What we know:
Layout: E1 2-6, E2 10-16, H1 21-33, E3 37-41, H2 47-58, E4 62-65, E5 69-73, E6 86-87, H3 92-101, E7 108-112, H4 123-130, E8 136-138, E9 147-150, E10 156-161, H5 166-175, E11 183-188, H6 194-206, E12 212-214, E13 219-222, E14 231-233, H7 238-250, E15 252-258, H8 270-278, E16 281-284, E17 288-294, E18 301-303, H9 311-319, E19 325-328, H10 340-350, E20 355-358, E21 361-364, E22 375-378, H11 383-396, E23 399-402, H12 414-420, E24 424-428
Parallel strand pairs: 2-15, 3-14, 6-7, 10-11, 18-19, 22-23
Antiparallel strand pairs: 1-23, 1-24, 3-5, 4-5, 7-9, 8-9, 11-13, 12-13, 15-17, 16-17, 19-21, 20-21
Helix pairs in contact: 1-2, 1-6, 2-3, 3-5, 5-6, 7-8, 7-9, 7-11, 9-10
Amino acid sequence: MEFQVEKTEKIQGVVQAPPSKSYTHRAFFLSALASGESTIISPLYSEDTLASLVACQAFGSQFQVSDGQSLVEGTAGDLQTPGDVLDLKNSGTTLRLATTMASLAPGCTVLTGDESLRTRPMQPLLDALLKLGVKAWSTRGCGLAPIIITNGFQGGATSIPGDVSSQYISSILLSAPYSQEGVELEVTGDFISQPYVEMTLDIMAHFRVKVDYHADDKSFQVEPQTYQAQDYTVEGDYSSASYLVAAAAILESELTIRNLFQDSRQGDKVILDIVERMGVGVKHSSDEVKLEGNGEITGVEVNLEDTPDLLPTVAVLGALAEGTTTISGVEHARFKETDRISTTTQELKKMGFQVQEKRDGLILGGKIPESISGVVVDSHGDHRLAMALSLVGLKLGRMRVQNAEVHSISFPRYREVMEKLGCQIKATP
């Protein structure tokens, strides 16, 4: 599928932010591990989160799914062995979280996914789990999926580098309450994407599990416990809302986005600070954001170490801004669905933007193309790149985004929401 994007002068209206992908993943896993029946209200049903739902079902939890909620009968940590190899599609979050959880199931579990997922680094997690008595290894001996995990989570002390993926840390923490001895986990080196771990701790507390975190030595301690079933409402997703926020920044706009909580632990809410620094009017109340823009923004310097998912969005903003935008701190974005630093650079250069690729980011600036009419760019199978690139067409004119169907990984209704606001984005086979 392709996006065909036409120039749009103005957006206005009121929309609901899609539910948080990160919180939905965690809510499915914790309700599956809990004792009793939980109600997950307003979950996101996307390709990625459905991979987590299917994995939790394979481990023995029962889901009753409807449009507005999921009723989940938990396992209290008494998992069953999946009857077949688990194909987790493109969901790196599911792969990481399910790896530790699989050690609670009897027998052997095999986790794999699509071609992109089988390039996502796993060895640091496998090494950390080995010290906890978890036997898990790559079938190819290269630290990549497919991964085999056998039964047994003794617990004890381990460490893990914090400069590759926060999902390793969340994986161990989420299943740690069901270890035999409890877990002491130390994060070594830089602690990137820390807000995602804070989200993990937040939802663990909601399901009545206590974690002791010592910031001075970046260590966590989790004693054996049992998650208790809860009703849990999934808040709006700042990562997905970033495309709406960016559209409001680059166009004349009057936009209200609901279900974005001011006290959210999501690191990607920094997108509001970024566009405000670029010149957009931002008013944030307790549960909604109002944005006003005149279509003119200026460049900024921004470190995205804690929010690598914002890289494509902020890169597009920087490309369309007057002056220079410098993005740093995101070398770990090279290990996402694609090498996002490289693929973002390639596609923006196709459209005539001046982009300098750095080891840990991008420098954008120079003359903005007057038109990109007829330009064809490629998502490289990356949902965030597909949506971010489509924004350029709204500002500069007709263009196409190939392999755009991947937007359904995180924001299935992206095109419909944008059209509601007045944007011209059509889908063609």
